[in-house]
Amino acid sequence: MSTRVEHALEQLKSNGVRITPQRHAILAYLMESMSHPTADEIYRALEPKFPSMSVATVYNNLKMLIEAGMVHELTYGDNSSRFDANVSDHFHVICQKCGKIEDFSYPSLEDVEHTAEKSTGFQIQGLRMELYGICSSCKNK
């Protein structure tokens, strides 16, 4: 198990959250996959190991992980939420053909927040940016 997953589990425990095997598996899958899966994809990936687990269990655990600040829910145009265990500041590039999502960071985008605060007086609490295009796999088909 990665130290990142261990650290996240310790954080949950210190907040009084009971660590069930399913919860552990969902968090580990999200942190290791980095593919921004849907709840159904998580369920299908973990079902062989947890045959008694339902899709509702996955959704309930994702909701708890979101509330604990360990997972972000990404809602894009395809009507199915995707989940991201990378909660650091980063942005997404989304393929318009297959829906693949990749992370990217660009530090000067923080300047956008500061400029917005100065020009509007708002206290900026978040920034969401997505770029759309065609991924290399779809482009080469």
TrEMBL record:
What molecular functions are annotated in GO for this chain? Answer: DNA-binding transcription factor activity; transcription cis-regulatory region binding; zinc ion binding
Single GO cellular component annotation?
cytoplasm
Residue positions annotated to bind Fe cation are 110
| One GO term of the biological process aspect | regulation of secondary metabolite biosynthetic process
Task: Cite the Pfam families for this sequence.
Answer: FUR
Q: Where does Zn(2+) bind?
A: 95, 98, 135, 138
Q: Please give the InterPro entries that the UniProt record associates with this protein.
A: FUR (IPR002481), Fur_C (IPR043135), WH-like_DNA-bd_sf (IPR036388), WH_DNA-bd_sf (IPR036390)
Name the chain's protein.
Peroxide operon regulator
